[in-house]
Amino acid sequence: MRVPLNWLADYVDLPADTDPHALAAEFASIGLEEEDFFGPEITGPLVVGRVLELVKEEHSNGKTVNWCRVDVGPEHNEDLDDPKDPQPGEERPSRGIICGAHNFAPGDLIVACLPGAVLPGDFAIAARKTYGHKSDGMICSAKELGLGEDHSGIIVLSDLGLTGEPGDDAIALLGLDQVILDVNVTPDRGYQLSMRGIAREYAQMKGQTFTDIGSAEVAPTSAATDDGYPVSVEDNNPINEVAGCDQFTALQVTGLDPQAKTPFWMQRRLQQAGMRPISLTVDVTNYVMLELGQPLHAYDTALLGDEIVVRRASAGEKFTTLDDVERKLDPEDLLITDRGDGASGKGGKIIGLAGVMGGADVEVNDQTTDVVIEAAHFDPISIARTSRRHKLSSEASRRFERGVDPKLGPVAARRCADLLVELGGGTLSPATTQVGQAPEPTILDLKVARVASLVGVDYTVAEVTSLLEGIGATVSTKDDETVSVTVPSWRTDITDDVDLIEEVARTGGYDRIPSVQPAARAGNGLTVGQKTRRRVSNLLAADGFTEVLSYPFTNDKRDDQLRLEADDVRRKHVRLANPMSEDLPLMRTNLLSTLVDLVVRNLGRGAKDVALFEAGLVSTSAGLPEGPGPRHLPGYHPSDDELEAIYASVPAQPYHYAGIISGNAEMPGVWGKGRKAEAADVIDTVRRIAAVNGLEVTVEADQIAPWHPGRAAKFVLADGQVLGHAGELHPKVCENLGLPARTVAFEIDLNALLAQDDLRAWDGALSTYPVSRQDVALIVDAELPTQTLAATLREGAGEELELLETFDLYTGDQLPEGKKSLAFRLTFRAPDRTLKADEASAMREAATKLAAERHGAEVRS
């Protein structure tokens, strides 16, 4: 919320010499944090000037310029005895200035920027020779002074309703010396999105008496009459059983002058608040919204139907908003429409998305003389959902979704009407519409001792009463320990006694709350999951991987690039209703889909050898019910069956690890040329991840995207769950993603790993007897995975097998085609005796016999 300090001074006692930075620090102490400062940007002489002479000169470039003599006051005019650019017959002191604009004439008061001044954008002004003259300054447009976007013509003070004398300080005249403080308003404090709300906070902070300019007891309102403009509220689809519009006020102003212009002081305040002046009627509605916090809308009566109707949208309805975008409406969208009787030929159209944005059909224009002013109160949830659904945030929606004072409508409508009458020459009609009533105020009991117990500051009853009255509450003593608090209508965020305690702490000053170091609670340390994640991350980091974090958003195109099959479960994404980017509307189902972007980025910035890993959640819509999940009112505690339905509607989010290596797995150096990464590197990485967590996995060849069909492995845990996959990425995938050929990657499901029993715990006694080792070489089919054969040998060898190692692979000419030789070392140890050679040999033979039965293995002599 941008707060022009001169505007704030209209409502509170703000000293003229207030330091804005000190004020920002004081606001921060009550929760209004500083976002930015907008201070004076112009330095040097900027003065009022009167055009004495204007000579049009055509030049060879086809451009016509004005050679002007400008009276800029005695202090700044040239001395007649030594003029910088003498003119024949010169009678009065002045300055010669070249100007290319043509919207002014001799006698006009303009704004002159003289040499030595600096304009916004660090634009320094100096005298310079141009078009055959020495131009001694510049005649300024609104854009050059930061007063707007218009640079087609220069500022003529009479057009702004301003006057002055040559030499007057134009910086002060145009309000260019004022400071604007931009403060951050938290979502639960919508009342602070107004000068009324900020002024209240300042008055309480400084201990001043605040006169509420938005109170019906202070500000004038119009009483409801039977002949007001017809309004009907027909909300047949309330959200959470709460009406979308509980109050609607409409006033009528007739006889407006269509040519009446917004006075400069109002235009300037709108600009300072970050809004663009448009026309008198629109500017007045915006001004009152900024002043009081109540969004307003003005309709051209001549274009409006016979009745205003507030209703929900029908399925399939469409509406073009003021930004010229056609929007497909949702049945939850609350609309402002009109209805005719058929005779007038008017009505029967949508005229606005309630509380968000209007349409062009009944927009005021330069022919409008009669208007209907709308001041309604809408349900915050309904407005917030509509705003997000259509990605349409407006000044009105920002206020409604944070909560607008339900009693403010009649006051704001009357304030708007009075300004239009004053500035536009209109007449306020006594016919007033008032549909609905503001809700009854909330009354809460507060135990004063509870304030001190929660905040840590010993507040007295008088102090608590004073602080709560400062926010606009009415406080009465109920007994020695309890006060009864009537919550002000604009504080819709206060619903319980803890909210009142928060207000006491905030308005009493956060700096009063002592800083106490809490004692750490005794606990059991890290959870099993946390320990496992640290263990895996440490292993990967020790292997040379760098941990990164990518955004979890993706799209269907990435699935195509990864060559996922049409029925692949990884294509079942959760689609975001309000994505950060329209190009990335889906939640990822696997980490590789987003991790590859970081690899490509590093390679694009000159890295040649990249090894990255990421740990994070993935999401899937597989198994979710159709349509939205169950919804319940705030504060409702669902039953066990309802909780089960809620959990069933939440997407599964397993925790994954993924890694990619591109380039060298072993760097070149004095020890050798290095080695490129290959599938075996990431396969071994996954095996060691399982091993470091005390698990054994079965490695099987697999064909699954995005891996190469002949260089990919699947890892299966003891209970049959798939831990993940590793191997070389498919060449087409590398080409699609811009990765180097032979890039390797892995991805595992940590949840599947955590579901296993940790086998690292030793529940027996260590054997002190020596080992017996037996070697065997087996000839098997070349396609048989080593891991499969090793598992068979381990099973056949029996319990005394302590270690099984593969130490040789041979595929030479001495073997039949399609065969390979694998050599294993079997280490046996008995817990209670020294094994004899015959016993170890028998165990080895039992292992090879089982391998021969299952895989046709032959012992190689």
Write the layout of secondary structure elements.
Elements: E1 2-4, H1 5-8, H2 20-28, E2 33-38, E3 46-58, E4 64-71, E5 95-99, E6 109-113, E7 118-119, E8 123-124, E9 128-130, E10 133-135, E11 138-139, H3 170-173, E12 180-184, H4 195-206, E13 231-234, E14 245-254, H5 264-272, H6 280-292, E15 297-300, E16 307-312, E17 318-320, E18 326-328, E19 334-339, E20 349-353, E21 357-358, E22 371-378, H7 380-389, H8 395-400, H9 409-424, E23 427-435, E24 443-447, H10 448-455, H11 461-470, E25 474-477, E26 482-486, H12 497-508, H13 528-542, E27 546-547, E28 553-554, H14 556-561, E29 586-587, H15 592-604, E30 610-617, H16 640-648, E31 655-662, E32 664-666, E33 675-676, H17 679-692, E34 698-701, E35 707-716, E36 722-729, H18 731-737, E37 744-749, H19 750-754, E38 772-781, H20 786-797, E39 801-810, E40 819-828, H21 837-855, E41 858-859
Parallel strand pairs: 13-16, 27-30
Antiparallel strand pairs: 1-12, 2-12, 3-4, 3-6, 4-5, 6-11, 7-8, 9-10, 14-22, 14-23, 15-22, 16-19, 17-18, 19-20, 20-21, 24-26, 25-26, 28-29, 30-31, 31-37, 32-33, 34-35, 35-36, 36-37, 38-40, 38-41, 39-40
